[in-house]
Amino acid sequence: MTPTQQLPAPTLVLVALCVCATALAASSSAADPQPAGLMVNGRLSDLPEPALLDGDRLLVSGSVLATELGVGLESTSAGAWRLRTYGQEIVVRPGSPRYTANGSERTATVAPLYRGDDLFVPVEMIAGALKITVTQGATWHLRTPAASVLGIRQGTHPDRVRLVVDLSAPVQFRYTADPGKVVIEFPAGADGEGRQQMLRLHAFDDALAPQVSEILEAGLVRVVIGHQSGKPPVVMTLDDPPRIVVDLFREVIPSVTPPCPPPEAPPAPSGLWRTQLFTGARGPVRGYVVQVNLQDDSYALKPALAGETIMRRSTVSRIARQYGACAAINGGFFSALGPPLGLLVVDGEWIKAPLYGRAVFGVDREGRCAIRRVDFAGRVDFEGVGSLPLEGINQGHTDPDGVVAYTPRWGSVVIGAQKLTRLVVGTDGAVAQVLRNGEAAMIPAGGFVLSGHGRRAETLATIGVGTKARLSLETLPPWPGLHQALGGGPLLVQAGRVNVTAAEERFRPDVASGSRPRSALGLTDKGDLILLAVENPGLTLRELAGIMTKLGARDAMNLDGGGSTALVVQGRLLNRPSDGCERAVSNALLVLDKRAGQGGL
């Protein structure tokens, strides 16, 4: 790689390494690794030095990881490198065989090293996360699992056009960028109609990227994006559901944007809300604080979706008005189509499962509030047969041998897919249908659908019609009587001390780093709830955590921020959104006044 070459990454562009002579000497072994030929998914790598052989251990270059396997690389100030793909994270350090995979420490046979201006990583460090099959020979072969394209969509923004390729499963991909064209190529999953060749054209309104072709040929999917951008594109992967995202940037950001509705004057500050100036690294920051005495039984808290299903988005103002809330703040993170990313429980109904052990605000049936980091411990129990663990609720499959439950909050149907088994469970709790051949499954009102992948698909196929099935949905560690829950993260404050856990909760740099508008909530020793929204130029997470402690928070967590930040009182928005207009979001946390007239704030 040259020092100025840009490569795709899940959250940012890979910048070539600058290595001094002493570092090179330190990373060299007694017998220098030798160059090795490399084929990735049947294609011979044309990079100058794609791989090295250290004894019988294969190391692949950072350039191969980025451009031929779709892995994002990010250097850290401590000299380590983070490798990210579809929500998984591997942290390696040149010269050390010790590494971490999704937070678990492991040791490889050989260490990563620098050669020239590129990083080389042992395949054994990444094979599990990427599900790589390695074949040894004069030319080494790497093969990764296949996937199908479920859809391609476009989103337009003032500074860019975003193309999203929705996938049936996480897949590693080859990426090339030429003037006016981006090509993404990966192994094709099974085609339900047995076709060996296929061409689909997708037309879009924005002239920056008006057409995308989707080609199936010789076992490969090739997505070709035609565009008019003169800037390097950024390619990233996202999970839940798995997708490849391509950002194409405009040469000139339009100066004219759609008009926002004129802002309403906020209500007069009261004893329960106020404005306050804070100091951040980028200067003074205006914040808005709502403080609610939870010992007062007049108030109740609950999260709320933007609509009847998770595929809807709306502004916090509209959600607050819909429920008659006296105050509301934007909730957790969400994907582009609307589904929340993280735990969401409303009035005892589980809508989404915990994600990556991230921070959650919860209320139990006795009204006790807490902020905790939790994982998912759900299962489905079949009467007289046994139990199976659940990998999630209302999401795509990420486990090659997993089971996902779909409720009516997903929508009315789970689309058909080959190699998956679907069980339709009716309102009586009994299995009504067993579907195996890519058939769509209708989700019954009051019931649910189970989807099995890999070995679990075979297991579900053995369950007979009429068998009773029950979902057992729990957190780990257990949270007895959990009645309301809103996932966000990362944790900011724990037991009165700043404790920002962005790395442990696997947040991308666009959330974890830099100053931006932020939303947060906290709980005090006195039993008060604190809601905070800060405007541009924003705060870092550590600055936000420090402010929450000064406001009296014993425990606090971050919520979605940036253009999503919105704090509403009496139906009126207090803060100025960074987008200019209030953004449509997936969910919000509501403060309800149970007294007549909803007048408490």
What would you say this structure looks like, in words?
This protein is mainly beta. It folds into four domains: about 140 residues, Copper Amine Oxidase, Chain A, domain 1, CATH 3.30.457.10; about 100 residues, Immunoglobulin-like, CATH 2.60.40.3500; about 220 residues, no CATH class; about 100 residues, Protein of unknown function DUF192 (Jelly Rolls, Sandwich), CATH 2.60.120.1140. The chain is built from seven helices and 53 strands. The strands form twelve sheets. Strands 3, 4, 5, 6, 12, 13, 14 and 15 form an eight-stranded mixed beta sheet that branches. Strands 25-26-49-48-50-46-47 form a seven-stranded antiparallel beta sheet, covered by helices on one side. The longest helix has 10 residues. The chain is globular and about 75 Å long. The N terminus is likely disordered.
Residue stretches low in confidence (pLDDT < 50, at least 5 long) are 1-30, 253-257
Query: Taking Cα atoms only, what radius of gyration do you get, to the nearest Å?
Result: 25 Å
Q: Rough shape? A: globular
Number of domains: 4
Helix content: under 10%
Class per helix and strand makeup: mainly beta
Tally of separate helices: 7
Overall number of strands? 53
Sheet-strand content, in percent, reads 35-45%
What keywords describe this structure?
single chain, 601 residues, mainly beta, Copper Amine Oxidase, Chain A, domain 1, Immunoglobulin-like, 4 domains, 8-stranded mixed sheet, 7-stranded antiparallel sheet, globular, disordered N terminus
